[in-house]
Design brief:
It is an enzyme of class 2 (transferase). GO terms for molecular function: 3-oxoacyl-[acyl-carrier-protein] synthase activity; beta-ketoacyl-acyl-carrier-protein synthase III activity. It comes from Streptomyces hainanensis. Keywords: Acyltransferase, Cytoplasm, Transferase. The protein is α/β, with parallel strands linked by helices. It folds into two domains: 166 residues, Peroxisomal Thiolase, Chain A, domain 1, CATH 3.40.47; 139 residues, Thiolase/Chalcone synthase (Peroxisomal Thiolase, Chain A, domain 1). It contains nine helices and 13 strands. Strands 1-7-6-4-5 form a five-stranded mixed sheet. A four-stranded mixed sheet has the order 8-13-12-11, sandwiched between helices. Strands 2-3 form a two-stranded antiparallel ribbon. Helix 4 links the parallel strand 4 and strand 5. Helix 3 crosses helix 4 and helix 6 crosses helix 7. The two termini are 33 Å apart.
Length: 330
């Protein structure tokens, strides 16, 4: 970051998951597989699903409310919503979210980065804060994956869950706890078809609106790209991987997280995880993980933390933070 410019500092944190828990017994019976098969392939035991009629903005309001309460300031200048499952194609969902939070009149925009959306949103918010355009930004990652996942598809039905996570970022000193470090961002559109929803866009207006994924290829690309983002983010922060206290990476699949730790030569105990009872919640994954860890002792003030994600696009990103003391937003 350029000397003299403010950094984006984490000052609020919150999340929300729907109350309905879907266990592996339900999913296994529908797919014709065993519960152990699901657990071994994904690391997921339970995931949350919204009830029919509940949409992405409703979850985002819950998480955003908690993050705003955690921050304590009561006001932000802008609202960003990272999501791959907006309530409608038009208008974007962020203005509706802002209005529902009592923030009508502030700038509001969607960030469509799939599983990397929250990391991209952090970078967008950080740039706006560094430029002095805004002084406080609410960023929510939320996805209603049950609206696009085919319940009969073995590749996707067992892994995804619905959730929302949120942070408040304020302009602050680059050296203070909570200040986000330099960002690593990248994309590879040549492999965009590895994770895609074919229908509903201008290219295929009447096609099927359900998620398709090439699991084996995604696994390989995730290891390469997310591993690179982790290593590069640590290097840009001036940390060796062995100096990092916690790794908070997108909860795509437990096997990916284990393989990443092994490839990087990092103790798996330093990789925080909640995939067992959350599943892959796409844009909500990283903030949901951070909130769970902050609440339950997985993160402590002063720890060096690397954030990273990989998803459709293909897209990936990473950054660093020295963890601050954050109040719970209940």
């Amino acid at each position: 970051m350029t000397a003299g410019r403010p950094a984006a500092v984490l000052s609020g944190l919150g999340s929300w998951q729907p109350p309905t828990v879907v266990g592996n017994d339900v999913v296994a019976a529908r797919l014709g597989v065993s519960e152990e098969w699901i657990l071994q392939r994904t690391g997921v035991c339970t995931r949350r699903r919204v009830e029919p009629g509940t949409a992405t903005v409703e979850m985002a309001v819950e998480a955003g409310t908690r993050a705003l309460k955690s921050d304590g300031s009561g006001q932000v200048d802008a609202v960003l919503l990272a999501t791959g499952t907006p309530d409608r194609l038009c208008p974007s969902s962020a203005p509706t979210l802002a209005a529902r939070l009592g923030l009508c009149g502030v700038a509001a925009l969607d960030v469509a980065g799939a599983c990397s959306g929250f990391l991209y949103g952090l970078a967008v918010a950080g740039g706006l804060l560094a430029a002095g355009t805004f002084h406080r930004v609410l960023l929510v990652g939320a996805d209603t994956m049950s609206s696009v996942v085919d319940p009969e598809d073995r590749t996707t039905a067992a892994i995804f869950g619905d959730a929302a996570g949120a942070v408040v970022l304020r302009a602050g000193d680059p050296g203070e706890p909570g200040a986000l470090g330099p960002f690593v961002l990248g994309s590879d559109g040549d492999h965009g078809d590895l994770i895609h929803i074919a229908g509903g866009g201008a290219l295929n207006r009447h096609g099927r609106v359900s998620l398709a994924m090439d699991g084996r290829s995604v696994f390989r690309h995730a290891l390469h790209r997310m591993g690179g983002a982790v290593a590069d983010a640590a290097e840009l922060a001036g940390w060796s991987l062995h100096e990092v206290d916690r790794f908070a990476v997108h909860q795509a699949n437990a096997r990916i997280s284990r393989a990443l730790a092994a490839d990087l030569g990092v103790d798996p105990a330093r990789w925080i995880s909640n995939i067992e009872h959350a599943g892959n919640t796409t844009a909500a994954s990283v903030p949901l993980l951070l909130d769970h860890a902050n609440r339950h002792g997985g993160l402590a003030p002063g720890q060096r933390v690397i954030l990273a994600a990989f998803g459709a696009g293909l897209t990936w990103g990473g950054t660093s933070v020295t963890w601050p003391a954050l109040a719970a937003g209940d």
